[in-house]
Design goal:
The protein is α+β, with helices and mostly antiparallel strands and 549 residues long. It is built from 16 helices and 22 strands. The strands form 4 sheets. A 7-stranded mixed β-sheet has the order 2-4-1-5-3-6-7. Strands 17-19-16-20-18-21-22 form a 7-stranded mixed β-sheet. Strand 9 and strand 10 form a beta hairpin. Helix 9 runs parallel beside helix 10, helix 9 runs parallel beside helix 12 and helix 12 runs antiparallel to helix 15. The two termini are 46 Å apart.
Length: 549
Amino acid sequence: PADRLVTSSTLRVHEGSLMVLYGASTGRDGIGGVSVLASATLEEGAEGSRPSVQIGDPFAEKLLIEASLEMVERGLLEGLQDLGGAGITCAVSESAARAGMGADLDLDAVPLREPGMEAFEILTSESQERMLAIVEPSKLGVVQEICERWGLKSSVVARLVGGGSLTVRLGGDVVAEVPARSLADEAPEYERAIAAPDRPDFDDPTFEGFEGNLRDAFLRVLSSPNVASKRWVFEQYDSMVQGQTVAAAGSDAAVVRVPGTLKGLALAVDGKGRFGALDPHLGAVHAVAEAARNVAVTGARPLAITNCLNFGNPERPVVMWQFAESIRGMREACLALGTPVTGGNVSFYNESGGSAIWPTPVIGMLGLLEDHRQRVPTGFPRAGLAIYAAGATFAELGGSEFAEVVLGAVAGRPPAIDLARERALHRFLLEGARENLVASAHDCADGGLGVALAESAIAGGHGLAVTLPGDLPPHVALFSESASRAVVSVAPEHEDSLTELAAARGVPWIRLGETGGPRVVFDGLFEAELRELRDVYEGAIPRAMGETV
């Protein structure tokens, strides 16, 4: 409930309030994950300098969540802060700075899982499943009792003091003293050099002729790791705990029911590494737009994003230019689609041996279904449905899956994108779902229209027969990754209504064919058994991992 919202920026703390660390013990895992080694690339022979990986424990996390919610519900907390990058250092300094105070921090009171940890290790460890609560001394006993009942360790590690100074003690000695604000709010700002790279004139794959076998090319794209089913990965954990999952992994967006209501949260993650390599600005715009589209095809309204921004060494002017261009693109898309950035992180220095990763902003999109029962499925639910392409297909193979997998080229320019058209598509999909006009909808992106049609057939278990529209060359019509498109199926009795809605919203609306049968037929081009496509799509990654399918 909104009236129970607790944030770290609305602390109602007082001098003398206690900082209680509770949850898992602090270990050496995670030291350097974000805070220590964020300014060094990984060179050959530098394995010993690689940051430690945090050890996660989902069951301990669940206990931590339940204990925290109980404290909130009982009104025991003045503030609550998670421990992320830089661990205790970050949590204590941010909490103190927001309160306009300082803090006395006693590292001897921190529960440790390893003996002999040094002060900097305790301060910067990013061990998971830990929280910092701000508590009035009179309520400490109740807080500790709740932690004990949930099987969590708790300890008073700091006390808020006046003056603004963060004082750190270990073994009775002061090992650090610094203004809390200097760590939380007054970090140095860097004006890095920015320079766009020289852009060689690559031949755009869109305008290369293709004389190969179209069916073989289609199967190669369908089985490429970026396109193929990720079931091998997501079925290795339980995604259905407590039965709140309405649409699981493998859909355009996962949908999770909000307990006690009919609402559903739609969640999707997208990133366009190839697009970012060719044009960081356009790559970021596409990442936001596709994540929003994946939410919209379920019938949910895109609301907000988080992000994970991945780049090379920002001390190199070209990388800093890529970063700045990606931020510009993300901002532009979020403003146009009305999806504010709620948080995120930046991962720099991802390079070694003179080779850096492609600039890859990964976008996590949150959407809202007012009634989860109106969720639109990805797959064709039955035979006899009309299949439409919502949105226009253009000759745009730059940065496409087809260009890389079949032509062996990551070249050209990513597809153009009109964010007004993108938003119009979302509005059309939402209204069609709300009026129960849409039988299925699937985002058209990696692999183009051909892959989107095949995925809808595989997901629903029904074949199709379609004719590709327009006068584009067949390989371009199949594999172009033009933006702002979806494959939609509709019952015959709703065709006229949905066609009128598309016209009213200014969304191109082209009838392709119908669902049904055991085959996937692209009229005049090629056809394949649905079971063959399912085997190619579902088996590609297990085979790549050396498993028998």
